[in-house]
């Protein structure tokens, strides 16, 4: 498999895993389901595209078309993660609140809103800017580390 692709996929997995202890430090409880969730710190999307762009920049150079494509793709992904997807998450949060208000207004004891949480819209779709930056920094570090490992193996 392509070393740049391996680097990006490993970085995405690492970012997803790091969400678990970071959230545990905030809340005091472990939630292993976060590995499969979107949103949160660090952004795995940002980490993955940043690691790929960094690996390509160090491997082939910043003046190559390869790096230009990876960098532009990465910028679009990061913008989308903290812009469009975050706005969709905030909209979903408000829609869920409205649904709860409607259920309360109906005054139907059989319609317990809190028991139907799984039917609500997903609100953790996007990222805060700090989560995107955190993912980008993680990606730059893992991309540089992966390139260093590849160079070291070639030298042996």
The end-to-end distance, rounded to whole angstroms, is: 21 Å
Discrete helix count: 5
Taken as a percent bin, the fraction of beta residues is: under 5%
The unreliable regions are none
Average pLDDT number:
83
Strand segment count: 0
Main sheet, how many strands, which sense, barrel? none
Structural class: mainly alpha
* Molecular shape: elongated
Number of domains: 2
Topology as a string of helices (H) and strands (E): HHHHH
Rg from Cα: 20 Å
Percent range for helical residues? over 70%
Keywords: Coiled coil, Membrane, Transmembrane, Transmembrane helix
Organism: Geobacillus genomosp. 3
InterPro entries: DUF212
Pfam family, one: DUF212
List the helices and strands and how they pair.
Layout: H1 3-27, H2 44-60, H3 65-82, H4 84-106, H5 129-155
Helix pairs in contact: 1-2, 1-5, 2-3, 2-5, 3-4
Short description:
Keywords: Coiled coil, Membrane, Transmembrane, Transmembrane helix. The protein has five helices and no strands.
Structure description:
With about 160 residues, this protein is an all-alpha fold. The chain folds into two domains: about 5-80 and about 130-155, no CATH class; about 85-125. The protein has five helices and no strands. It comes from Geobacillus genomosp. 3. InterPro entries: DUF212. Keywords: Coiled coil, Membrane, Transmembrane, Transmembrane helix.
